[in-house]
Amino acid sequence: MATPDSDVPFRSVHPLTVAVELLPRVFSVVRNFWPLFLAAFFGRGDAIDGSWLFLGVIGSAFGGGLLSSLLHVLTFRYRLVGDRLELLSGLFDRQVRVLSIDRIQNVETLRTLPHRLLGLVDVRVETAVGEEAEGHVNAIPLADGDALVAALRARSSASLPPAEPRIWSELSLLDLVRYGASTGRAGAAAVVMGLLFERLGSGDSDEVRALVGSVGPLQVLGVSAAALVAAWWISIGTAVVRFHGFRVEDRGPSLAAEGGLFSRRRVELAPRRIQQVTVRAPWLSRWLGFVTVAIETAGARTGGGTERSEAVLPVVERAALSATLGRLVPAAARVIEEGDAGWQPLSLRALRRAVVRAYLRAGLLTVAMVFALGPWGALAALAGPLGHLWARVAHARSAYLVGEGLVGFRSGVWQRSVHLAVGARVMTAEVVAGPFDRMRKLAAVVVTTAGGRIVLPAVDAELAWDVAERVLAQGRGDPVS
Amino acid sequence: MDWTRLSPKARTLFYVQAALSLPFTRLPFVFGVTAAVGWSSGWQAGLIAGGVLIALVLVELVWYPTLAWERWGYQLREGELLVRRGVWVTRVTAIPLGRVQHVDLRQGPVERWLNLSGVAVSTASGLGADGVIPGLELEDAVALRDRLVAVRGDAGL
């Protein structure tokens, strides 16, 4: 297939790409044919020499991965021509993908351990289409990658005044320890408990029975505390591996965030393209004096190492939050500075529903506990007033905002979060009401941008459409009361 | 609000679609519950459970498509397309016309037989079609598609 500017030569990827790409491609084969691998693994037996069959299947996966990597190296070509990036791929089904540079949302570079050992880099270019990076230039020499990113940056921001890069944010190891300690530990605790059960399960059954029989409340407390501490260490370790050496460079029209211990990920995004920001503040991070800010553009939402958010600032000191948001979405900074001004409480009907549910749950729990424990089980009735109190606090913390060029929702008692979408980026507004919502005359307003969605739950049904209209007015740039 | 309804033939479309989906959606559930109850509590209990579930499925089959047809509607305003739908969970979706990225016309075999077409409107939200209107007369669907794609505006990116 020919392209118009055929005088600009295409560049190919580095031959060592085969080595870098082999493992991910083998994993991809295994992921696509996982039932076959499960069947081969569990179905192996002496009758048909199943171990050889299993090895054969694994060998085929490696062979498939190797062949796929070789084909990629032999057929993939790229070039930058004028204001577009052209990517050629495929042996039998040849594809020419042309990406217009002014449509690029983010440029991301990734250097895993093999990349770093071999001096290579992956460059991923994301537009607003689909859920994966549209332009993926795998494993090219570092110098070529830097040149490609620099060229993309220069052409995408040609109309904007250039600025000398400066370090905008930098995190120390201590910051990452603080961040890791404050992130959710439920998953890590589950892993620790799973390992514990695995260990118990593999032991001699009489020994395990004797061990379980001799365990008292103190031991249970000790094991739980140990699991929690272990989970804490896992969270801290994960944060250090993911964000080691994290720093953000301000380049004027764009910001470049970079971090990672083994795999260095660098993402460049333009603040003018930001669709949403989320400020997360779990109780421990509030106590330690920082919050986490997640940034969403219209780029890839899954896959390709981008996970959900295009960029995350793991530690932003409370005192610096306003200035940080001001650089990203100026209106968000004003909203944070003004505190409760402009925020609307959720419907009182939602509070009444939560209170009724709390007492219903407490009633059911009390009946069950009385049956199980006798009169002492009646103490479970205290869950009712406690649930009532919790519902009031949660209701007081929850609020939505439509104004200041933003649509926002804040919630949470322990794990507080504020989601803010740029009003001018709203794609759709939807009023949703399930049967139980309609019984209580409630509705949710769901606001979608290209960076995700924000749900304003439990709005009075008679106000919901008015809220949706005000959201749409933000997109049109109409004045909003 | 003045809503444009689907074609009256869309009711037939919904009935046919509901009947065709029965073997893949409701019936396996009915057979599973019947077998489970019969196995655990005797064949009489299984038959009763199965009978009740089949009666519920039949009531749904008769009642749901008509209600879905009545609830579905759209409104093309100056700046937005509104789409209303839903029986259990009701939804009204507003799509600013300037945000429309592309519009699909969709026709399955039953729709072709009835000379109907669905219109699917997508923005850059990345969530697939943001607004789907099934069961329009083909010429109405084409006219709506043409009006939607004629609008130029800021894509919001």
Largest protein interface? A-B, 32 and 23 residues
- Class from secondary-structure proportions of chain B: alpha+beta
Number of helical segments with 4 or more residues of chain A: 16
User: Percent helix among the residues of chain A?
Assistant: 40-55%
Describe the structure.
The complex is a heterodimer of chains A (481) and B (157). Chain A is α+β, with helices and mostly antiparallel strands. Chain A contains 16 helices and 21 strands. Chain A starts with 10 loop residues before the first strand and ends in a 5-residue tail after the last helix. The mean pLDDT of chain B is 89. Chain B has two domains: 9-68; 73-150, PH-domain like (Roll), CATH 2.30.29. In chain B, the strands form two sheets. Chain B has a four-stranded antiparallel beta sheet with strand order 1-2-3-4. In chain B, strands 5-6-7 form a three-stranded antiparallel beta sheet. Chain B starts with a strand and ends in a 7-residue tail after the last helix. Chain B is built from five helices and seven strands. At the A-B interface, strand 19 and helix 16 of A face strand 4 of B.
Write the layout of secondary structure elements.
The complex is a heterodimer of chains A (481) and B (157).
Chain A: E1 11-12, H1 17-32, H2 34-42, H3 50-75, E2 77-81, E3 84-89, E4 95-100, E5 106-111, H4 113-118, E6 120-126, E7 135-141, H5 142-156, E8 166-170, H6 173-182, H7 186-201, H8 205-213, H9 217-243, E9 247-250, E10 255-259, E11 264-269, E12 276-281, H10 283-288, E13 290-296, E14 311-317, H11 321-328, H12 330-337, E15 344-345, H13 348-373, H14 383-397, E16 399-403, E17 406-411, E18 416-422, E19 428-433, H15 435-439, E20 442-449, E21 452-460, H16 461-476
Antiparallel strand pairs in A: 1-2, 2-3, 3-4, 5-6, 5-11, 6-7, 8-9, 9-10, 10-11, 12-13, 12-18, 13-14, 15-16, 16-17, 17-18, 19-20, 20-21
Helix pairs in contact in A: 1-3, 2-3, 6-9, 7-9, 11-12, 13-14
Chain B: E1 4-5, H1 9-21, H2 26-41, H3 43-71, E2 73-76, E3 80-85, E4 90-96, E5 102-106, H4 109-114, E6 116-122, E7 131-137, H5 138-150
Antiparallel strand pairs in B: 1-2, 2-3, 3-4, 5-6, 6-7
